[in-house]
Amino acid sequence: MRDPGQIRAIQCTQCGAGLDVLGGGRVTTHVCPYCGSALDALDNYRVLTRFTEMTRPATPLSIGDRGRVMGQDWQVIGILGLSERWQTQVWTWVDHLLYSPTHGYVWLTLEDGHLILTRRWRKAVSPGWISAAQVEQANARPGADSDGEHFRYFETSTASITFAEGEFTWRPRQDDRTITVSLLGDRTMLSYVEGAHEREIERSWYLPQADVWAAFGVTGAAVPRTEGAHPLAPVRLPRDLSFLIGASAVFAALCGLLALVFLAMNGRTVLAQTTLRASQLPTEMAFDIADTSRLAELRFEGDLGTNTWAWIEVTLSDPEDVPLFEAGRELGYYAGRDSDGAWTEDDRVTVIRFHPTQSGRYTLDLDAPEGGAGEAQDGPRLGGLRVSAREGASSARPPLALAVLFALLAGGLVLWRRTAEARRWQGSDWEDDD
Amino acid sequence: MVFLTAALIVTVGTGYLGYRGIGGASTDLDRSIRVGSASNALTSSHVK
Questions:
Q1: Per-residue pLDDT tens for A54-68?
Q2: Which of A251, A295, A396 comes nearest B25 by C-beta?
Q3: How much is the pLDDT for B35?
Q4: How far does Cα A334 stand from its chain's mean position?
Q5: Could you read off the pLDDT of A151-160 as tens digits, one per residue?
Q6: Residues whose CB falls within 8 Å of the CB of residue A102, separated by 6 or more in sequence, listed in order
Q7: What 3-state class would DSSP assign to A133?
């Protein structure tokens, strides 16, 4: 290991350019930004190799820039340009090697305008290694666990070095290739990185972009524009979304239960079921209502033959003999057979619900003036009519409507979360067999 | 907590409405025949 305290600057042994030495004791290679020579920091900066025809990648950061990231001060000591090619597509990104005398080395990656911090991950990871070949052979999406976070396979990438300058803790070579198997967790990414000479497990964090750029003194138009969503970028969802979904579902169930209870609370009979023959119509019936705080119900059930209908007319008068309302309802019963099989349309029962205005004796005027067979209107077809009345009924409609609203809310929130999650995973190269 | 409180209040309120049968009356009742109804003179076919 080099003594980090001894040397502050050197001259490139190839071109003579003055180079600052910033990187601490683990630096092994220094790539001259002027001539591209890779110098051996462990052997008097002799020339190891030379990077040629390098194109400087677009980054607003330079060697020597200082900034505070994740609560720690860092300095840029090396810059790598990397690219991946697949068929006609090319992806490029820039890795900045950052150094802190107290915290060592981390990568600050600039990809499509997004800043990611990556460092070697020394904590226990299960499984200890996942290779690209294992991914190829896997039947199910590979997963891993570390530091209490579960990761699922995201992609495999093969990167080549296209540019290098500054100091590095290993010896980068032009066109060196590394294969990275990346797994995405809820908050971070875990990567199994396999280079020509070593294997590493790394963990990546998405950084607060504006803060980090500002920390490095990059402001205004110099800040790169982000392109697309990064899988590590935090999804803008309410923090307690799971709770909201659960609570909405519970309230939907609660309201559904309440609706069932109210459906069963159909009050007490004030007019026992009375059967009227068609010949008795029109007629007048009376019943007493005492409970004016809740609903009253009039129930009618017609004796109808197949494919016949009848129109009944109802007028209800209050205890002061003032008409409260009138209503007309069609009763019908249809049955037949078509290409889908037998069918019936049974509307022989109808219920009228109303709020009594006062307690006392109500009078019901009832008639069935029209009827017919099929579509025809050829006279009353009603064999008989059963009439009954109840009071003190509740209504299932309000809690049922609220149950639907809560269910829609829960469903909408689930859909929101799934859409956001799908957006995070849209760049994954994993394809399920099904 | 805000959501829970709001949901609870709405549920209790809806429960009260349901218990009282408010919102459960048939919607096709013609009340224009009622004497004194504001719409009586305008809409009822029973008033000539």
A1: 889 999 999 999 999
A2: A295
A3: 61
A4: 47
A5: 999 999 999 9
A6: A72
A7: helix
Q: Report the number of secondary-structure helices (H) and strands (E) in chain B.
A: 2, 0
Contact B23 A247 (CB under 8 A): no
Distance (Å, whole) CA A157 – CA A108: 18
Cα gap A161→A220, rounded to integer Å: 30
Pairing of strands A199-206, A143-146: unpaired
Where residue A256 falls (left for φ over 0; alpha for ψ -120 to 50; beta otherwise) is alpha
In the block, tokens 């904590």 appear at: A123
Residue A221 is encoded by which pair of tokens? 């138009």
Cβ neighbors of A392 (< 8 A, separation 6 or more) are A267, A268, A291, A294, A295, A296
Alpha-carbon distance of A168 to A314, in angstroms, equals 93
Give the CA distances from residue A235 to residues A83, A88, A207, A231, in Å, rounded to whole numbers and listed in that order.
Answer: 27, 30, 13, 9
Helical packing angle, A397-425 and B2-20, nearest 10°: 150
CB count, 10 Å around CB of A287?
Answer: 21
Q: Which residues of B, range 2-41, sit inside 8 Å of A by Cβ?
A: 3-4, 7, 10-11, 14-15, 17-26, 28-31, 33-36
The answer to whether A63 touches A72, Cβ cutoff 8 Å, is no
Pick the closest to residue A302 from A246, A385, A229 (CA basis). Answer: A385
State the smallest CA–CA distance between residue A249 and chain B in angstroms: 11
Q: Is A211 helix (H, G, I), strand (E, B) or coil?
A: helix
What is the domain partition of chain A in residue ranges? 9-222, 266-393
The helix/strand/coil state of A236 is coil
Residue A164 tokens read as 């290098």
Q: Which of A226, A224, A191, A225 is nearest to A205 (CA)?
A: A191
Question: Which CATH code is given to the segment(s) A266-393?
Answer: 2.60.120.380
Please check whether residue A380 is in contact with residue A373, taking contact to mean a CB–CB distance below 8 angstroms.
Answer: no
Question: Per residue in A293-313, pLDDT tens?
Answer: 999 999 999 999 889 999 999
Residues of B within 8 A of A244 (CB-CB) are 3
DSSP states of A6-50: T-SEEE-TTT--EEE--S-TT--EEE-TTT-EEEETTTTTEEEEE
Q: Which stretches of chain A drop beneath a pLDDT of 70?
A: 1-7, 380, 433-434
Contacts of A98 (CB under 8 A, 6+ apart): A69, A74, A75, A76, A77, A105, A106, A107, A108
Distances (CA, A) of A216 to A29, A99, B11: 25, 14, 53
User: How far out from the chain centre does Cα A47 lie?
Assistant: 53
What is the three-state SS of A142-194? Answer: CEEEECCEEEEEEEEEEEEEEEEEEEECCCCCCCCEEEEEEEECCCEEEEEEE
**ipTM at complex level:** 0.73
Question: Which residue do the tokens 């000591």 mark?
Answer: A77
